[in-house]
Amino acid sequence: MLNSKRSNIAPFLAIDMLTKANNLKLKGQDIIHMDVGEPGVSTPKHILKYAKEIIGNKKIGYTESIGIPELRQKISGHYKSWYDQEVNSDCIAVTSGASGAFVLALLAMFDPGDKIVMMTPYYPAYVNAIKALNLDIIFIDGEIDTGYQPTEDKLQKVKNNIKGIVVASPANPTGSSLKNSTLKQIAKWCMKNNKVIICDEIYHGIEYVQKSNTILRYNKDAIIINSFSKYFCMTGWRLGWIIAPKNIINVIEKLSMSLFLCPSTIAQIIATKAFDDYDILNQNVSIYGKNRELLINFFEDKGLNKYAPADGAFYLYIDISNISNNSDSLANRLLTEIGVSVTSGKDFDYKFGEKFIRISYGGSNKSVIEAIKRIGSWIKLKN
Question: What is the bridge-based pairing of β-strands 164-168 and 343-344?
């Protein structure tokens, strides 16, 4: 029996590397994970403590398809305190992770054959979701001078009749952020030209240069995707959210009822505590910042100084063409020979990715220092 044509999507190489690395770990090899994009620290203790308290004491049944009212109200309060933006809880839908949020947003806003603009490099799961829904992607080649981010000028030069655009700031895999002035220009351009804009704000809170503005400040019709995974350190709980105009949330509610029924109930309940202690979360960001500095200094010392501006998130997207023209091979050699698992750039860019690798530095300072030692010795040995 043959599978459907739209299911013929590329594998997610970061997860492939994670699987390979874990298999080697089972065989006794000491592995440092710099492959998948997740914090190395655990979910904050006060959240885990609350989880223990409610298990066995609360009924864990179905909830509203767009999330429990208490959590949606907490998210609303977060936007008021962080961005000074009023977001009614009726304009918020809690979802099964940001991935679930993205699929719901695509279904709500686009029809098969619609064209969507994305920059390269890109987050591969987004590309695969778009393709699986029979939507067309118009890629714009990113440039290091603009942080591989879109500009109004680049959008104006697109000749195809596009329906919308997906932006991410800070972005995965590059870590680059849109300047607030550029974000405003793009948001206004989409309003003026009646284009859908989906803005991935998943890495808000993890910034090293400037604090990110939400696109809501400039475009109230924008569709925002966010998550409890990154800044809030809740990756395995699989919980995200969408902010959109109320009429769009009504559509998403109907879609969610049939596709997901509801997000994880226990994850929703404990996530109401996620906004209680920003200090501990910011301490984690300071760890990422130290790791970032260590890696940048190390790679620049080795002559690998072409990388996307690491404004936020916990990634370095590095041009490795000085030492290899095959990032797949390089990533596999680093894993098998020294036990450092990174991701090939081919996961993020179909055209130029063979010249890049992505390094995730969300782990501990100790693990990053050890990875630097191993990679440094390996490069020296190969030279």
Answer: unpaired
State the Cα–Cα distance between residues 278 and 16, nearest whole angstrom.
Answer: 33
Summarize pLDDT for 276-290 with one digit per residue, the tens.
999 999 999 999 999
Tell which residue, 282, 298, 274, has the closest CA to residue 359. Answer: 298
The Cα 187–Cα 333 span in angstroms is 42
Q: Give the span between the Cα atoms of 238 and 96, in whole angstroms.
A: 6
Residues 6 or more apart in contact with residue 285 via CB below 8 angstroms: 205, 206, 207, 231
103 is written with which tokens? Answer: 């699929």
Cα gap 94→357, rounded to integer Å? 33
In angstroms, the CA 163 to CA 316 distance is 31
Integer-rounded Cα Rg, in Å, for the chain is 21
Structural domain boundaries enclosing 107: 45-271
Q: What is the pTM of this model?
A: 0.94
177 and 286 share one domain: no
CATH assignment at residue 249: 3.40.640.10
Q: In this predicted model, what pLDDT tens digit does every residue of 85-117 receive, in sequence order?
A: 999 999 999 999 999 999 999 999 999 999 999
d(CA 249, CA 234): 24
Question: What is the biggest distance separating any 2 CA atoms in the chain, rounded to whole angstroms?
Answer: 61
The stretches of 65-194 forming alpha helices (DSSP H) are: 69-83, 97-109, 124-132, 152-156, 180-192
Match 């055209």 to its residue by tokens: 351
Which 3 state secondary structure label does DSSP give 200?
strand
For the record, the structure tokens of 262 come out as 């509801």
Q: Phi, psi (5° rounding) for residue 247?
A: -65, -30
Q: Are residues 137 and 183 in the same domain?
A: yes
User: 198 pLDDT band (50/70/90 cuts)?
Assistant: very high
Contact 202, 230 (CB under 8 A): yes
Residues 86 and 196 in one domain: yes
**Is residue 361 within 8 Å of residue 315, measured between CB atoms?**
yes
